[in-house]
Design a protein that fits this description.
Elements (H helix, E strand, L loop, with lengths): L4 E8 L4 E5 L2 E16 L4 E15 H10 L5 E15 L2 E15 L50
Parallel strand pairs: 4-6
Antiparallel strand pairs: 1-3, 1-5, 2-3, 3-4, 5-6
């Protein structure tokens, strides 16, 4: 699996569009990534070229994007880069898309409050009991058993 994974830091350039498809939830928005550099002549930061990416999110990530992101917000996007070229009306067009794996607010610009999304109810999966990770006192741990951090297996 040779995929180009990227991490892009920028701002939400279009209001996210959320859709319920037959394959599950999907969301997309445009991401503006502007290079900034120090201009010695002006003694200040200057904006460079802006790249635009279409960010695609699927399943639970799409639902969370629809509920969390708004136009202009600073975000960090990680995902697979897809560059496509095509001919439209006799002209060559190139587009860069990011198939997102993770999206979050850029906390260098402000604060954010995390809220865990509710899990959808699944009737087919019975509740599983929590495993007992503790080793009873006085009994050695089995080979290959993971011990809590900072503790060695009894031998």
């Amino acid at each position: 699996m040779n995929e180009t994974m990227v991490c892009a830091v920028g701002r939400v350039a279009t209001q996210p569009v959320y859709r319920e498809l037959a394959s599950g939830p999907s969301a997309r928005f445009r991401l503006a990534v502007t290079a900034r550099y120090w201009d010695r002549e002006k003694s200040g930061w200057t904006d460079g070229h802006t790249n635009f990416f279409t960010v695609w999110a699927n399943r639970q990530l799409a639902t969370n994007v629809g509920a969390s992101l708004s136009l202009g917000e600073p975000v960090v996007v990680q995902g697979r880069l897809k560059v496509r070229t095509e001919v439209r009306e006799g002209q060559n067009w190139t587009s860069a898309d990011i198939d997102a794996v993770a999206i979050g607010h850029d906390l260098a610009w402000g604060t954010s409050a995390f809220r865990r999304a509710g899990k959808p109810e699944t009737a087919s999966a019975p509740a599983q009991p929590e495993p007992d990770w503790e080793t009873p006192a006085g009994r050695p741990a089995e080979a290959g058993t993971r011990q809590p951090s900072g503790q060695a297996a009894l031998t």
